[in-house]
Amino acid sequence: MKINVVGSSGSGKSTLSRALADALGVTYIQLDQLFWRANWQGTPDEEFFPKLEAALADHSEGWVLDGNFNRTREIKWREADMIVWLDYGFWRIFRQSLHRAISRIISQEELWPGTGNRESFRQTFMSRDSILVWMLMNWRSNRQRYVASMLDARYRHLRIVRLTHPKETEALVASLVQYQDH
What is the pTM of this model? Predict the structure, then answer.
């Protein structure tokens, strides 16, 4: 099975993607890890797209891909079987984003191995590049884009699952574990 987990920043894409990959026994691929380089430098599309295509091809038996990057949609969704859209409410996602940012500032964990990228107080609370600002500015447009995708004939081959509450998310993971066991 090939699944792309999408949703606003802070919605829980990485957590759900890891759980789904574990439940299905497939590879977990994180778009941010493919994109971000040292010093918060992004990978140009002419390098990023081939990296993504290679990562998906290397795991043709199945994968769970974590991330949006709208410009990669044609690559990701060409091979995907299912899109899981975490569409939680604004305040839940804001709370989760804030909690995650504070936890990462305190822990100083490296976000993607080998990049040295870590969240800082300054970057999170005093910068236009803040992940919190990004979430605030993109939450509504992300929702509109995914609603449109659900109705787009180009994506009829995909099973699109819209999850609006953590209980639905838990039920999806449980059903895929059961599916895998059979």
Answer: 0.92
